[in-house]
């Protein structure tokens, strides 16, 4: 028997470049007249096309919402995926993209991280439930949080909510360790108690820079890749999927129970896994993403994630005015953070 596993999870792109050295307080949004204040916003009007930079009315908060002046919001892979209309969480047109960000609460001017999934971060003012925000700890860079809280969340919740009875000082294999999400997954794993981190990537030089303990270098012909270093893994965080995942699960002779967690699909969206693999290995297969864990499970983890940014390495981001969204929408070589 063969099991055909298909992934619809978004993959994750790489970071890069520049970030401002200071954070400025922001003025109130502009007004077209005294009765109808307006603000700048990005707006998706056609599936698959870059959002337009436009003006829209300032939204009024609902009874349980708090208004936030947005400082920065990251252009994550999932943001682009939602804008294609093909993501399982895509809504209706038109809509404002952006799944999270950092801003100042208008009520007290405090810096907060907010979650707006699946939409809403790319605008000047956003109204968010108090349950979907958390204050930034002192010393944490808002632009780092805007660029990387989302990818950090992917590995954090995978380890927190999608593993079971992990041993102390566990060994983790990060597949796709040089991607944006993979790089931070290495650090998240250590924060969560990993004693050994094995990194897998095609780029040997970058893989060493990530700071893993052991490496697996993917070959052009996947079938020739030696994955034996993963034999002692307790958990696998997979951002690659496709034929790479099939090769790992089929060829590695695991020496202990292993929990495989699918998170992203950089190498493909489908995998043919022979049934004999499931019968011959002590293997647990799960996925991690919104839907596999609940918002209630995520909520208490957000302050912990924000606090962990104090210990994370500074990652490269490129901060861009929201007015240039059409120009930078398809830039997948750099980690883009927009400022309204």
From TrEMBL:
Annotated region (Disordered), positions in chain: 1-35
Stretches with biased composition (Polar residues): 1-22
Keyword list, A-Z: NADP, Oxidoreductase
Molecular function as annotated in GO: NADPH binding; oxidoreductase activity, acting on NAD(P)H
Entry superkingdom: Eukaryota
PANTHER family linked to this entry: QUINONE OXIDOREDUCTASE PIG3, QUINONE OXIDOREDUCTASE PIG3-RELATED
Listed name of the protein: Quinone oxidoreductase
Species the sequence originates in: Aureobasidium pullulans
């Amino acid at each position: 028997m063969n099991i055909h596993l298909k992934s619809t999870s978004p993959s994750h792109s790489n970071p890069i470049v520049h970030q401002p050295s200071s954070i400025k307080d922001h003025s109130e949004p502009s007004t077209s007249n005294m009765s109808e204040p307006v603000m700048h916003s990005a707006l998706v009007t056609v599936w698959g096309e870059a959002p337009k930079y436009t003006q829209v009315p300032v939204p009024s908060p609902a009874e349980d919402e708090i208004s936030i002046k947005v400082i920065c919001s990251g252009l994550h892979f999932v943001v682009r995926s939602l804008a294609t209309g093909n993501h399982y969480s895509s809504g209706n047109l038109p809509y404002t993209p952006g799944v999270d960000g950092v801003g100042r609460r208008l009520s007290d001017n405090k810096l907060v991280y907010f979650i707006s999934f699946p939409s809403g971060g790319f605008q000047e003012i956003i109204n968010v439930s108090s349950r979907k925000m958390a204050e930034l700890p002192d010393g944490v860079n808002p632009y780092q949080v805007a660029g990387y809280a989302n990818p950090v969340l992917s590995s954090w919740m995978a380890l927190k909510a999608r593993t079971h009875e992990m041993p102390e000082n566990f060994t983790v294999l990060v597949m796709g360790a040089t991607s944006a999400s993979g790089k931070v997954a290495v650090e998240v794993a250590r924060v969560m108690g990993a004693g050994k981190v094995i990194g897998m990537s095609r780029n040997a030089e970058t893989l060493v820079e990530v700071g893993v303990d052991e490496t697996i270098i993917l070959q052009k012909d996947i079938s020739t890749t030696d994955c034996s270093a993963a034999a002692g893994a307790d958990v696998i965080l997979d951002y690659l999927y496709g034929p790479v995942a099939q090769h790992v699960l089929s060829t590695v002779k695991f020496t202990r129970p292993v929990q495989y967690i699918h998170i992203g699909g950089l190498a493909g969206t489908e995998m043919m896994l022979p049934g004999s693999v499931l019968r011959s290995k002590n293997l647990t297969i799960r996925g991690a993403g919104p839907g596999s864990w609940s918002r209630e499970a995520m909520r208490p983890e957000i302050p912990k994630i924000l606090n962990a940014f104090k210990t994370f390495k500074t990652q490269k981001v490129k901060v861009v005015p929201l007015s240039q969204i059409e120009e930078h929408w398809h830039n997948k070589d750099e980690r883009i953070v927009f400022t309204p």
